[in-house]
Amino acid sequence: MTLISFKKLIAIALLLTVTMFAGAQQLIVYPAPAAETDPLHNNDFTVKVRKPGGLWQDLYEYNIKVDEVKDARHTVMNASMCSFDFSGGVEVSVTNNKGGIESARIRPLSYSITHEIKGNTLYFRLDKPANLSVEINGDIFHNLHLFANPVDDFKINKKGRNLVYFGPGVHDLPEKKLEIPSGKTIYIAGGAVIKGRLLVHGSQNVKIIGRGVIDPSIKMG
Prior knowledge:
Elements: H1 6-24, E1 26-28, E2 45-50, E3 57-58, E4 62-70, E5 73-87, E6 90-96, E7 104-107, E8 115-118, E9 121-126, E10 130-136, E11 139-149, E12 163-166, E13 169-179, E14 185-188, E15 192-199, E16 207-210, E17 213-215
Parallel strand pairs: 5-11, 12-14, 13-15, 14-16, 15-17
Antiparallel strand pairs: 1-5, 2-3, 2-6, 4-5, 6-9, 7-10, 8-9, 10-11
């Protein structure tokens, strides 16, 4: 019988612990769908994420529309949106490109996410997925919508007959719409933007999933 020394057992245990920890620490960022000069992009913020102590990775800041009501009238405002997937923990930096940061709020306030301000950059850490609103200097309408998602575990089979796959990039739908028949799964990958509408009329067993973006703002005739 071969005897393993106590030191070797400790070394094996440490190796297994490090391996399990490394497997638990995942960070997935998605490619920009277009150049930063594209109307899809909002330059109010520069947002980055990293594994604790690791290298910062840039996120793409989408331009989205929010509604402010003034004097009973609706006013459309531009806000920002970013997303990424992770497990374990991540650090986030949000740089305000419009100037310094006097105050910041990360909603929901019930999450009690602590943060640090250095000049025009806000830093905070996340230990679990969350959908957040980051508000700088009290501005609630030009805020950052941050979707810190769990890691997507959907297994993509591009040869599957019932899968319609949209990869990273901008997709202009023919006639600005796509009628989805029964039994289809629409997968919109991270970094993909669909310009148009996905329509489900009388269909059954339809799934629309993924980390991409649907822009239905195209006016229909």
